[in-house]
Amino acid sequence: MKRREFLKSAVTTGAGLIILPGGLRGATAASNKLNIALIGAGGRGHAHFASIADENVVALCDVWERNMAEAVKRFPKAKTYSDWRKCLEQKDINAVVICTTDFTHAFVANWALNRGMHVYLEKPLGITVEEARVVRANWLPKRGKLATQVGMQRHAHDNFNRIAEMLRDGAVGELQAAYAWGNRQIPKPGYLPAGETPPSDLRYDLWLGPVKADHPYHPEYFSGKPGANCLQWNMYWDFGIGQIGDMGSHTMDIVWNAVDCHLPTSAESKGEPFNPDVTPVKAEMRFEHPANDWHGPISITWYQGGAMPNPPSEYVDINKIGHGAMFKGSEGILVADFTSRALIPLGKDGSLTYYKPRKKEELLPSVGHFQKQWINACKNPSLKTACDFAYSADMIEQMCLGLAAYRVGRKISYDGAAGHVTDCADADALLKREYRAGWTLNG
Ligand SMILES: NC(=O)c1ccc[n+]([C@@H]2O[C@H](COP(=O)([O-])OP(=O)(O)OC[C@H]3O[C@@H](n4cnc5c(N)ncnc54)[C@H](O)[C@@H]3O)[C@@H](O)[C@H]2O)c1
Prior knowledge:
Order of helices and strands: HEHEHEHEHEHEHEHHEEEEEEHHEEH
CATH topology of the domain at 157-186 and 243-364 and 391-429: Dihydrodipicolinate Reductase, domain 2
Low-confidence stretches: 1-27
CATH class of the domain at 157-186 and 243-364 and 391-429: Alpha Beta
Mean pLDDT: 93
Strand order of the largest sheet: 13-12-11-7-10-9-8-14-15
Number of strands: 15
Number of helices: 12
Shape: globular
Structural class: alpha/beta
Strand content: 15-25%
Bound molecules: nicotinamide-adenine-dinucleotide
């Protein structure tokens, strides 16, 4: 009964957030348009053209001039920049969409927040525990004034809410463990050698930006398909966090949305031998979380690059799910991918009589168009976004802690309030990284 009452009130609150057909009053009026800067205007930036086209796109920024060409054609009135720090000085900007490299995400997001701008940030939110914490700390006092969203757009599939409802309604009994996995494998031997000069219209110095080491230019870092070029650099330690930041951001989101957890109390990890240049292809990371108001203590485990959890039963082949999630409880197991789910009752009480699916009118409301959800929230601060900088920072902080555990090769204890590993100084030192002189994370 208690659970039902909670759900009803959650739905009522949620219903207040639905935007009625016709949109917000005056949302498309000239006076109510956002002044947007698109930073990282090529590649993934193109996926945002349609959702920002109804606003004023007043600035475009890209380190590579040729990558900006299509954006310039689409938004000819926008001023153009190669350095995002200069771009953010433009006074009329009130919202930014950031599609740059992962190792610059937390920088640009912090600088934009500090200048009073709403932020849509492509995933991952950051690549270290420290970056996640600084972005979150920066945004929390501005919550309700500045709208934020991390580009985990698969979250808009209704399946995410259906899974969350099922777990809260007791579909697996008492929740005990959650698992997420991804099978993408991009092995690389190490950083690429020197040999070629950068194209004349690429500001390679700005591309490297805050990276401390002088990695030489190599065309292979830039040889991917537009919108998927991130797969050319995100596995190198200085440029990204491999699959935990890539598909991990999307797939762990299925779990994160459902389990209602914040920061873990411990992390342990195993995987292939450590390579100082490249993040692991095959690895698994397990986190312990304290009880919350609707479930007891649980573990969350991430598997990548061929590592997989045990199947829920011998006749279910979860290897057929390339990127998926699973939830184990006292009565059953829920297996899911981004758009579908299957409930497998366990043991003697496999009758499912313990579980009463909720009524249609009690379902959580749809997210709707994911990018537009952010645009609407920029215009109406009372609206929430699904993947704001608190939700998304917690999730990626956990994943980055897992990488620190992987590197030290032992279980570590974590004090989430202080942001410190309490029993391993080496792991604690891995929660942040050094930057090139002149680049400030929170400027
Ligand atoms: N949400 C999703 O499903 C999704 C899909 C693809 C990519 N992404 C994310 O989008 C981001 C970009 O990925 P991509 O494949 O387009 O990569 P990319 O290497 O093509 O970079 C995107 C654009 O940003 C520019 N750029 C790079 N660094 C910059 C900087 N410091 N300042 C200004 N411009 C800069 C590049 O020249 C390019 O035009 C990554 O963080 C990736 O994780 C998200």
